Amino acid sequence: MNLTLKIWRQKNATSKGRFVTYQVNDISTSSSFLEMMDVLNESLVIKGEDPVAFDHDCREGICGACSMYINGHPHGPDKAVTTCQLHMRKFKDGDTIVIEPWRARPFPVLKDLIVDRTAFDKIIQAGGYISVNTGGIPDANAIPIPKVNADLSMDAAACIGCGACVAACKNASAMLFASAKVSQFALLPQGRIEASERVQAMVAEMDKQGFGNCTNTGACEAECPKEISISNIARMNREFLSAKVCAPKVKEQSGGGI
Amino acid sequence: MAELNSKIPKGPLPQKWTDYKAHTNLVNPANKRRLEIIVVGTGLAGASAAASLAELGFKVKNYCYQDSPRRAHSIAAQGGINAAKNYQNDGDSVYRLFYDTIKGGDYRAREANVHRLAEVSNSIIDQCVAQGVPFAREYGGLLDNRSFGGAQVSRTFYARGQTGQQLLLGAYSALSRQVKKGNVELFARHEMLDVVVVEGRARGIIVRNLVTGAIERHAAHAVVLATGGYGNVFFLSTNAMGSNATAIWKAHKRGAYFGNPCFTQIHPTCIPVHGDFQSKLTLMSESLRNDGRIWVPKKKEDAENIRHGKLLPTQIAEEDRDYYLERRYPAFGNLVPRDVASRAAKERCDAGFGVGETGLAVYLDFSDSINRLGKGVIESRYGNLFQMYEKIVDENPYKTPMMIYPAVHYTMGGLWVDYELMTTVPGLFAIGEANFSDHGANRLGASALMQGLADGYFVLPYTIQNYLSDQIRVPKFSPDLPEFIQTEKEATGRLQRLLNIKGNQTVDSFHKRLGLIMWDNVGMGRNEAGLKKAIVEIAKLREEFWKDVKIPGTNNEINPELEKAGRVADFLELGELMARDALNRNESCGGHFREEYQTPEGEALRNDEEFKYAAAWEYTGENSEPELNREALDYEFVEVKQRNYK
Ligand SMILES: Cc1cc2nc3c(=O)[nH]c(=O)nc-3n(C[C@H](O)[C@H](O)[C@H](O)COP(=O)(O)OP(=O)(O)OC[C@H]3O[C@@H](n4cnc5c(N)ncnc54)[C@H](O)[C@@H]3O)c2cc1C
Ligand code: SF4
Ligand code: FES
Q: How much distance in Å is there from the Cα of B567 to the middle of ligand 1?
């Protein structure tokens, strides 16, 4: 198939960007979106032009590196896939495809389609962990965990930290991302111990990094490649409220979660 | 030829690690704070090591080339992690895990290391559960297990089809906690270009800041490489696009011996190649072999009709299907080790029974399990893998069997390390897939995650102290020493040289050509003539690369083509060493199959008399052949036998 691409080009973080139009021909429908980009880049290199820079690594939808805003959707039009898993059979011969970087203040563009997502790491550093050191741990089966809770925790833990939720949100809110981590731990007895401190620290860091507030539009859930549920945001809000109401130390330590 | 000292502790096998820990030198807390450690890599090995060392009080600097430590390729591991918990009460034990690993590796791994690995395996699971890793559980609330190849027990812990992701996020969260505490300094989007050796010891690294292009000098008391495997030598593999050998290859050129470079794992269940635009291959986890049955048509004409689209696999009657693994290996069936399964698939396809458009594919069929267990159960076990398959191939594996074919997946070879995980350069350590490790000539499924975390959480934090204990009086290093300046100059010079070539061919085009040479001659089947040819061809290709590669842009910006060029330049050297090692090893063992050496039934034929050793190659200079050192492998505790999975 033959395609017209309108791609955001920006030399570096300080320069102004603009759209540049390219033509790619003879793209196989079974190639992936990034393989189509490879074809474009090979041709640019041969012509002596600067290829389009984009983040990618695993190319199997799990590392969370790839991050293209395609035809108005983070990760493109297909449901529940990352950019690297999007395949060209989802497009038609002759289509024009518009490709942009994530656009959100906390994710500044570094070059072309590459943005800086360090703000996500900072949110995790603020409290996205259970404070245990290596070693001296009781047997893994010492605390049974109801299967439903383990499964729900796993649903939340599937987040790949790509940032599509932020890019999709008109407020650039990181609530879906942060709530996925908060929920993963809140649902496990091991995580309950610090639940209150964790949620407060992570919310504070979100604000500090410049992410916006959540106004419940649900765009994040709709665009999330891992189908992280918006119910995690509700859980995080409850965790946050009860953390505020209760003293900094949580009393509840049951395996039940909320 | 240098004397290789593997530093295996004396004493009975089950006692060695305990004794080592009891007697090794430690560093006291006040001194730890003054000692700096560089850890390159944030995968399971690197992140777990960086976090654990920082918890102990050392000052750690941690590097990765991705934008975040959480994206290291460990994230992509699907199937699971082994441990000898024996939660299933099916007869597992530390000894059995040790034995299976030694046997699975075709008797080419070091006994003492493998036993230690099996010993610490249980603590890993405890650690991960405490970190909040949501492993799969049974209805009673206890941990669930599945089976993997090469074992007759269920000892694999898993988190859906995303075990690597969950384990890595666990290690990443421990790491993040130490970053917050100020004990770890993170350098994401930094690529290591060289090691700095001062007076015979590793004292630092040269890195390129991938955003600004700046070349930086970083110093420390010890350097740990946790940079993953080098399967991307083959261009097409299940590794990430950025996975590279640069760190270990440069370390090799600075004096670290390279262990068993030719030991490559070709994984039997990957999505087949489907076009020359293809950039990488996708694994379908080995766990699928728990419930999927592998077959090809019994009749050649059926296979042919399928290839031409005239027949569907679902139209082949049961009696016309050849479940060749079950036929050849009744005891292990579809769960034979990877090397055996891969060769068997190649054998059927080479004989003309392959399916798919290219004839280079076999079926992995779930219809029996779906009938037996229901679609829901299969979906809960492998849903994400089925979805991934459907996205790529555009076929529904619940309805029609998956097509799979072997692909390069893992490298058992790597930097040679002693029992303390130190390379032949004092102060330079290698952990995880980057070392030549515990898997011998073939790694069993779910054992890489185990080894990476064993190295990082439970082994290195002890063994590195033995080295550092006599470094406590050594003051902080200045990266302005002449050795740092010189190494930096060399790194910068090389990048400039690459940029100045301004030739006509792209980096990828060279990488693809190297991949083809490797796959055809140093892949699943190897022989003397092919290996000799590969050595010549790789040298020629390397020469062409340095004359005609075309890299746009400059060194002072984000420049992915320049990054790739540096990596491919190193692959072009490492590939040759792999071929030399394969040529030297006149036997078949594990994943190394020399066509000249096989049993009448086509199984790998080892030659213990001459090759019961780990090959440790020494770099001797640009235009001189590498020198082979041998670490004899003494099997004191297991009887060395022909592997038998029948
Ligand atoms: C698709 C797939 C599925 C797998 N499934 C399983 C499984 O189910 N069970 C199992 O046991 N094993 C599995 N494996 C194998 C296992 O995942 C790997 O062997 C293991 O995760 C490697 O971990 P590591 O920490 O050594 O390296 P990696 O996770 O690869 O990390 C390497 C790190 O080094 C950094 N790095 C590399 N080069 C440089 C450089 N030059 N400069 C700076 N930083 C650098 C990277 O940024 C990264 O942080 C699988 C492998 C693949 C590819
Ligand atoms: S919640 Fe979804 S969209 Fe947001 S970072 Fe996680 S995976 Fe990406
Ligand atoms: S490249 Fe890893 S998720 Fe897309």
A: 16
Residue A175 to chain B, least CA–CA distance (Å): 18
What residues of B are in contact with residue A55 (Cβ under 8 Å)? 67
Tokens of B324: 């060749």
If one looks up domain A3-111 in CATH, what number appears? 3.10.20.30
Residue A59: closest CA among chain B residues belongs to which residue? B240
User: In this predicted structure, what is the pLDDT of residue B2?
Assistant: 60
Residue with tokens 């034979």: B336
- State ipTM: 0.95
Distance from CA of A48 to the nearest CA of B (A): 6
- Note whether residue B588 is domain-resident: yes
CA dist., res. B327 & res. B350, Å (int): 18
Domain contains B534? yes
Residues 217 to 236 of A: which have CB under 8 A from any B CB? none
User: Tokens at residue A249, please?
Assistant: 């130390």
Each residue's pLDDT tens digit, B82-108: 999 999 999 999 999 999 999 999 999
- Tell me if B519 is assigned to some domain: yes
Number of separate domains in chain B: 2
Give me the residue from A134, A185, A188 closest to B457, CB to CB. Answer: A134
Of A49, A121, A153, which is closest to B134 when you measure between CB atoms? A153
Catalytic residue among B110, B289, B293, B338: B338
Mean pLDDT of chain A: 94
Choose one of A32, A36, A56, A86 to mutate for the ligand 3 pocket test, by most ligand atoms within 8 angstroms of C-beta: A56
CA distance B208 to B224: 17
| CATH code of residue B564 | 1.20.58.100
Q: Do B240 and A57 touch (CB under 8 A)?
A: yes
Q: What is the pLDDT of residues A214-256, one digit of tens each?
A: 999 999 999 999 999 999 999 999 999 999 887 555 444 444 3
Token digits for B566?
A: 């540096």
What sections of chain A are H helices per DSSP? Answer: 33-46, 118-127, 147-157, 164-168, 175-186, 189-192, 195-208, 219-223, 231-245
Strand pairing category for B59-63 and B36-40: parallel
DSSP-derived pairing of the beta strands B428-430 and B613-618: unpaired
Q: Which of B101, B170, B174 is nearest to B135 (CA)?
A: B170
**Host domain of residue B493:** 488-611
Do the Cβ atoms of B137 and A145 come within 8 Å? yes
Tell me the nearest-neighbour CA distance from A58 into chain B, angstroms.
4
Which residues of A, range 82-111, sit inside 8 Å of B by Cβ?
85, 87, 89, 110-111
d(Cα A149, Cα B383) in Å, to the nearest integer?
A: 19
Domain at A118-246: CATH code: 1.10.1060.10
Cα B411 to averaged position of ligand 2 atoms, centre (Å): 32
| pTM to 2 decimal places | 0.97
Name the residue of A118, A165, A183, A229 whose CB sits within 8 Å of the most ligand 2 atoms, as the mutation to test its pocket.
Answer: A165
Q: Which of B131, B509, B511 to substitute to test the interface with A, most A CBs within 10 Å? A: B131
Instruction: Give the burial class of B417: count Cβ atoms within 10 A of its Cβ; 0-12 exposed, 13-18 middle, 19 or more buried.
Output: buried
The answer to whether the beta carbons of residues B505 and B550 sit under 8 Å apart is yes
DSSP class of residue B581 equals: H
Do the domain assignments include residue B120? no
Structure tokens at B583: 């040529």
Among residues B272, B277, B270, B318, the alpha carbon closest in space to that of B295 is found at B318
Determine, for residues B279 and A153 on separate chains, whether the beta-carbon distance falls below 8 Å.
no
Q: Are strands A69-70 and A73-74 parallel, antiparallel or unpaired?
A: antiparallel
- Please say if B567 is a catalytic residue: no
| pLDDT of amino acid A256 | 39
Instruction: Tell whether the model's pLDDT for residue B145 goes beyond 90.
Output: yes
Three-state DSSP class for residue B178: helix
CATH of the domain at B376: 3.90.700.10
What tokens does B622 get? 């640009």
